[in-house]
């Protein structure tokens, strides 16, 4: 009897000891990146409740969901000419992967009528996206866990994009983060397949493409990366084949229209410009040249560390001179995307999800002194405020560009990160050492 009664007592004692240790180490839990899994688990549980509360309490706002359903309904009814697929907001302008994924949502939600079910599905997507992002941050081991509170519960705009607006941008980004996880595990072929699938949902994923190309050349050389690029291209052909067989030019011009004009009333980043400048082709060309120049500078001076020419990337890796360790995959991909965001012709409110989850890494990937933590948190807050100002103003758009410029300066002048090995949390190290000594 005493043995049976002692079990619950011992369990309670162990639980109390864990809580006491966590309280003693509360500073380390908030500041040590090795505690990311613990903080991530707590935040994911909290986010489940937050998303349920948002769905039940905040009114759903119809923007694009109905149009999405109308566009894929045309495909469900047998229309294969891409130029004839349209909804209330205009013609279909996304690649074929979007059609297949949202066709599944179309049938799952009773032909798009059960919006509440769609919201729950997007809440699940939100949590999956968060888990994939946390796994990336754990692998990089750079960001202090307290920053994740600002990346989760504090952003009204991101919750709105996922569960109140049901945009396709979160779908593309979740697939992209899955691809990055595969890259981190050295599954490059599967990662390229998922990367191409993300592009087929929305073309903003192409902003990561320059960084991915650099990584493929660095890892495999020119000849070695060709099969990976073929995987990306063949998936696009396979997904678009039903439409390519009927009207190939119609499909290509609609789904990959790089010259599409944006409406000035929705811009978040260029509100301080006159509308005639915003719509001017010369302005668009200038932004494109700035984007290419930024990519070139980062490729030469931030991504490429060895002293030998960058053309050495074209060689087989076995034939290159011994070099310093390569930069982290995440740094190259996230900075490549961020350069594209900074030079975008227009950012709409749903585009915030393109880089929101990468901001903590971009701010904390370089060495950070104790006094620098607060300005970085403040920078996150100002960016969030800019994206929550509706409609955008001259002040909010200028502030957004200033914040982007500060992040770029840090990425340029800071010490670029190297791949890291994971150390156990501080509380476990003495025990491990003592066992080793014994």
Task: Describe the protein's architecture and organization.
This is Dol-P-Man:Man(5)GlcNAc(2)-PP-Dol alpha-1,3-mannosyltransferase. Its EC number is 2.4.1.258. Its main location: endoplasmic reticulum. Keywords: Endoplasmic reticulum, Glycosyltransferase, Membrane, Transferase, Transmembrane, Transmembrane helix. GO terms for molecular function: dol-P-Man:Man(5)GlcNAc(2)-PP-Dol alpha-1,3-mannosyltransferase activity. It is a single chain. This protein is 63% helix and 1% strand. The two termini are 36 Å apart. β1 (86-87) and β2 form a beta hairpin. It has 19 helices and two strands. The protein has a two-stranded antiparallel ribbon. With 438 residues, the protein is mainly α. The relative contact order is 0.11. It has one domain (33-413). α6 (115-140) packs parallel to α9. The model is unreliable at 423-438 (pLDDT under 50). It has helices at 2-24, 26-31, 36-57, 65-76, 96-108, 115-140, 148-151, 156-164, 169-184, 188-199, 209-244, 248-255, 275-278, 281-303, 329-342, 359-364, 373-387, 394-413, 429-437, and strands at 86-87, 90-91.
List its salient traits.
single chain, 438 residues, mainly alpha, 19 helices, 2 strands, 63% helix, disordered C terminus
What is the compact description of this entry?
It is built from 19 helices and two strands. It is mainly α.
Number of spatially distinct domains: 1
What structural category characterises the helix and strand content? mainly alpha
Largest sheet: spatial strand order? 1-2
Report low-confidence residues grouped into runs of 5 or more: 423-438
Mean of all residue-level pLDDT scores: 88
Oligomer state equals single chain
The SSE string, one letter per element, is HHHHEEHHHHHHHHHHHHHHH
Helix content: 55-70%
Pfam family, one: ALG3
InterPro entries: Glycosyltransferase_ALG3
Protein name: Dol-P-Man:Man(5)GlcNAc(2)-PP-Dol alpha-1,3-mannosyltransferase
Membrane topology: Multi-pass membrane protein
